[in-house]
Amino acid sequence: xxxxxxxxxxxxxxxxxxxxxxxxxxxxxxxxxxxxTSIDIFFEVLVEGANNLKIGKSIVVDPLIEPNExxxxxxxxxxxxxxxxxxxxxxxRHKFIVDVYQxxxxxxxxxxxxxxxxxxxxxxxxxxxxxSI
Length: 133
Fold this sequence. Notes:
Layout: E1 4-8, E2 20-26, E3 29-38, H1 39-51, E4 57-61, E5 70-75, E6 78-83, E7 86-90, H2 93-117, H3 126-132
Antiparallel strand pairs: 1-2, 2-3, 3-7, 4-5, 5-6, 6-7
Helix pairs in contact: 1-2, 2-3
């Protein structure tokens, strides 16, 4: 099972400029769930967290347009992620990083296809593209 599950809103087609959807971060204990949220922003937060995970280190990532900050706390090989009052514990850091990579790659592929279909340029999404390489 993946630590990360998500879905894009498809009611009027996928909005490749501001993709919204549901976001689920399901850990070995607890979960973080956000419905009808900016999927690309949440992925940027996860990328920043995944890129900066070091044992004994805590980092805070502020998604700016969302009401709460994300707190990543990696102690004794246990990753604790907190968002507002929601919290999850992840025991397999490597799997978490792989799951984030796969989700980011999938999101970029979907958004790029949508932009091509609409004959529009691809969104920059530099942080996500750098992570998916």
